[in-house]
Design brief:
28% helix; globular; 8 helices; Purple Acid Phosphatase, chain A, domain 2; 5-stranded mixed β-sheet; 15% strand; alpha/beta
Length: 278
């Protein structure tokens, strides 16, 4: 058995199949962990959703910002399709309801305590412990599933900029979503920045990549994440970044989570979008 983590697919179905062929993946033997953004910007979001759902227990995924956007459009939560979206095939599919029912049940974070891995799409603020992250993620997941249109209609926005125990439930949920699916940079005082998207650069100071803050409290897990194509593949002790920009003409990458000596496996992707999007 092998466990593989795979970067942002974003509707690139052909690249996903090519990558799995390179891995000699067997759903009877192996397990896949996707770091979110299964859909959007690429040409075949519908096929990706159907394929991953069909894998059952052999595949697990967290929700990314594009997955949540699809749910918001599906539930008519005040958000329509945006320029560059490629979700029409999903919205017109006869099995749309079944796919959306499956997607909304996917978590914002997967804690594989047995292997010491935590899967998220975006990032973690330094002040959160593992218990904080999981509690906040589960609260947001419950709110999303209990009232999808209501939750999704309040999900968008860049405020609040930092966590506060005195915030309203909606503010806490929005902040949690922003951290776990959108954040790349944050400040030492806990504020998050949702506009900086480029590769780590000293010119962004005092904003640092969320994983560079020395006082980060969540250190007992290897953090496996995507979302940051300009960062690219990054393998460090306790950190694994996997978004290698497939939809922008980069690559789709998988890493064997159990064999640290195994090299990453990537397949080249055809550009579907102009680089610079989220």
């Amino acid at each position: 058995m092998a466990r593989y983590a795979i970067g942002d697919v974003q509707g690139c179905h052909d690249a996903l199949l090519a990558l799995l062929a390179r891995l000699k993946f067997s759903p009877d033997r192996d397990q896949l962990f996707f770091v979110g953004d299964l859909v959007n910007r690429g040409p075949a979001s519908l096929e990706v959703l159907r394929f991953v759902r069909h894998l059952g227990a052999a595949a697990r995924t967290v929700l990314g910002n594009h997955d949540l956007h699809l749910l918001a459009v599906h539930h008519d939560a005040g958000r329509g399709l945006r320029p560059g979206d490629t979700l029409e095939d999903v919205l017109a599919a006869p099995d749309r309801e079944a796919l959306m029912d499956w997607l909304i049940l996917q978590p914002l974070a997967i804690d594989d305590a047995h292997h010491g891995d935590l899967f998220i799409h975006g990032g973690v603020i330094p002040e959160w412990t593992l218990e904080d992250l999981l509690a906040n993620a589960r609260a947001a997941e419950r709110a999303l599933r209990d009232d999808p249109p209501g939750f999704l209609s309040h999900m968008y926005g860049n405020k609040p900029e930092r966590w506060s125990d005195a915030a309203t439930p909606i503010e806490k949920q929005r902040f949690t979503i922003n951290v776990l699916t959108r954040m790349r940079y944050c400040h030492a005082d806990g504020r998050i920045d949702l506009k900086l998207k480029g590769a780590p650069d000293a010119s962004h100071a005092p904003w640092l990549p969320w994983f560079e803050h020395g006082h980060r409290r969540l250190t007992e897990r290897r953090l496996v994440f995507g979302h940051w194509s300009t960062l690219g593949l990054m393998i460090r002790p306790g950190l694994l970044a996997l978004d290698t920009g497939c939809v922008w003409g980069g690559a789709l990458t998988a890493v064997n989570l159990d064999d640290t000596g195994a090299p990453p496996v990537s397949v080249a992707c055809q550009a579907c979008q102009t680089p610079g999007g989220d």
